[in-house]
Amino acid sequence: MSVTKPEKSNSSKAFFPLSEILEKRQHFDRIWTLLKKEYPNPKPGLNYKNPLELLLATILSAQCTDAQVNKVTENLFKKYKSVEAYASADPKELEKEIYSVGFYRQKAKNIIRTAQLLLEKYDSKVPETMEELISLPGVGRKTANIVLARGFGHIEGIAVDTHVKRLSKRLGFTEQVDPIKIERELIALAKKEELDALSMTLILHGRKVCKARRPKCAECLLKQLCPSSRL
Residue 191's closest CA among 36, 4, 6? Predict the structure, then answer.
């Protein structure tokens, strides 16, 4: 008599017991409650006055500090005041304007082409959907999430930058290293309306206390809850 073996599941998803999911969510809630009290009104680090300026500043901020970007955009936004101005900008001249933010050739190219696409496809306006934004040169999910949340008040996900990535792992929110996977796990833990605040708060705490090379564990309000505490 032959015995039929059960078919193997094709699912690549790991199974997590409900108790483990609840434990992680409780851990997140305890930490998030403390962080919200410590940073009650987190503000974006980039200076901007409209969605276009926010989009361009965020493109420039790739692998550059917000402080340096703000120095550059202070003059840049005065010189180029419209989508048309960026679309017709001289590449070499724009490169000189943004030289100090790094990767200036590629960023200048992305800015000019993005402006041209805004003219051609979006009536000179910054689009308000994730799909449209990530189709623009130099715009990934991180940039798109920032523009949607802070430019239009549309929260679809969470911007995962180097600080958010580092703190999410150190605090035990995720074991992932891929930004998209980290984003998914944070979405599962936090309330949708708090995702942008969570991103900004983790960035602030990362800059102030949980630094990359020398975290100030002794000063950290999370030292009793953080699985990575060096105390």
Answer: 36
